[in-house]
Each structure stands twice: as structure tokens, then as C-alpha cells.
Design goal:
By secondary structure, the protein is mainly alpha-helical. Among the domains are: about 10-35, no CATH class; about 95-215, Cytochrome c-like domain (Cytochrome Bc1 Complex, Chain D, domain 2), CATH 1.10.760.10. It is built from nine helices and two strands. Helix 7 crosses helix 8. The longest helix has 21 residues, at about 45-65. The structure holds heme C.
Length: about 220
């Protein structure tokens, strides 16, 4: 039995489900549901592949990045030109000299260069430090016998510090420590080169401690 109400088409239309409505629309637009256009899960293998790549990349950087040090990664650095030797980073002679002084000389001549009279003469404002020829020989071979420094008499023994001695300082280190003491504590003498130290060592060879009489013949 049907009521007049049920003959109204709109009642049947209102009863359709969403799915049947969408299917009807798709049919109307002429488009069929397309399985291939739907999202799919990425293959699990890709997850493993990229995990592996990231792990490899991290390990590679950790091992070979040089901690991104500017000397390792400098995109502006140019290869040295032909015939030009890449300069080794120069050691500041004052820094090296200061270290050698603290290690070798300061125990006697004191960190402030004032010495410890009457045993150890001062290096600050000393006329012996101002003479390159004399100062190099004193450090290379040591010194013994009476000496007058800034008007005060000393008579002690300074051990040799040059190559082959107990301290075994290289010409570079001797040059550095002399360069340091010649500009420290108000001293104003010029730098000493390792070449000059090596030249004097070549001239004098292996010898006993210097005496003041020998030094006084030198400039
Ligand atoms: C073990 C103690 C001792 C050490 C270490 C020592 N000296 Fe001396 N130095 C002396 C003595 C003592 C004299 C004086 C020697 C003499 O009376 O003949 C002297 C003299 C000198 C002189 C000449 C006099 C003067 O005061 O200017 C110079 C320069 C000098 N030393 C520099 C150095 C330097 C540089 C070092 C380090 C590389 C050094 N000495 C390490 C004890 C030392």
C-alpha cells in the first residue's frame, strides 16, 4: 500500500546513500573510479635505502670533514703557483723565544730578566745582550770566569745551551730566545736569525765555554 506522499520522487532521492550518490555523479561526469590515481605506500625498501645513505653520509663527514677546519675547507684557497713553495705557517719567534726563555733561562736570569745578584746577572739593559755576536756565543757555549754586567761584577758559570749540550737548543730556538730577550724588558736590539746562529756555530765548532776576554774581541 502506498501513500500519495511516497509517490513523490524526492522521497526516494533523499534516501540514497553518499556512496550511491557519488557513484551516480561519477557516472554522470563520465569518469570512472581510477585505482591508479590513488595514493600508495612508498615501498619499504626506500626507507632502508635512505636510512643507509644518511648513515653513510654522517659517517663519511665525521671521518673526512676535518671538522670543517678553515685550513681544510677553504673554497677560496688557490693551489700554489708553479715554482712557489707553499709557505709553512711561520712560528712567531717572540712566542717561541718566550717559551724557550721560560723553560731554560728563567730559572737563573728570572722571569723578569733582572737576574739574581750576586749569582746571576741581569739580561734587562745588559750590554752583552745588545751585542749579537757575543750573545749568540754565550748561549751556544756557555760562559765562565769574571764578567762585569751593568757595572756589577759576577763570577759564575753559565752552562752551554747549544746543539749537543744538555739543553740541546736548535739554532732556531737560540735565535728565537735571543730575539725575545733583545726586545723584552725595555731592550731595543734587533732580531737574531737562525742562519746567523748556525753560521757562528759552524765557525766556532764544538768548543768549551766562552771567556770574557774572547768575547771582548768581538763587536
Ligand atoms: C744555570 C743558570 C743559567 C742558565 C740556565 C742560563 N744562564 Fe745565562 N748566565 C748565567 C750566569 C751565572 C752568567 C754569568 C757567567 C759568568 O759569571 O761568567 C750568565 C750570563 C749570561 C749572559 C751575559 C751576561 C748578561 O747578564 O747579559 C747572557 C746574555 C745570558 N747569560 C743569557 C742567557 C740565556 C739567553 C739563557 C737561556 C737560553 C741563559 N742565559 C741561561 C747563568 C745561567
Amino acid at each position: 500500500m502506498s501513500s500519495p506522499m511516497h509517490q513523490d520522487k524526492r522521497v526516494d532521492q533523499a534516501a540514497v546513500t553518499d556512496e550511491s550518490l557519488m557513484a551516480a555523479h561519477e557516472k554522470l561526469i563520465g569518469k570512472q573510479p581510477d585505482e591508479k590515481a590513488h595514493y600508495k605506500l612508498a615501498p619499504l625498501a626506500l626507507l632502508f635505502l635512505f636510512s643507509g645513505l644518511i648513515f653513510f653520509g654522517g659517517t663519511y663527514l665525521g671521518r673526512f670533514s676535518g671538522h670543517f677546519h678553515p685550513k681544510v675547507y677553504n673554497e677560496y684557497a688557490m693551489p700554489p703557483k708553479a715554482g712557489e713553495v707553499a709557505a709553512a705557517p711561520a712560528v712567531d719567534p717572540i712566542v717561541l723565544g718566550k717559551a724557550v726563555y721560560a723553560q731554560v733561562c728563567a730559572s737563573c736570569h728570572q722571569p723578569n730578566g733582572m737576574g739574581l745578584p750576586p749569582a746571576f746577572p741581569p739580561l734587562a739593559a745588559s750590554e752583552w745582550v745588545a751585542s749579537e755576536e757575543r750573545a749568540i756565543r754565550i748561549v751556544l757555549y756557555g760562559l765562565e770566569g769574571p764578567i762585569k754586567v751593568k757595572g756589577v761584577d759576577y763570577n759564575g758559570v753559565m752552562p752551554a745551551a747549544g746543539p749537543g749540550s744538555g739543553f740541546n737548543l736548535s739554532p732556531e730556538k737560540i735565535a728565537a730566545v735571543l730575539t725575545y730577550i733583545r726586545q723584552e724588558w725595555g731592550n731595543t736590539s734587533g732580531p737574531v736569525t737562525a742562519a746567523k746562529v748556525a753560521e757562528i756555530k759552524g765557525k766556532e765548532g764544538n768548543r768549551a765555554a766562552m771567556k770574557v776576554a774572547e768575547l771582548e774581541k768581538l763587536p
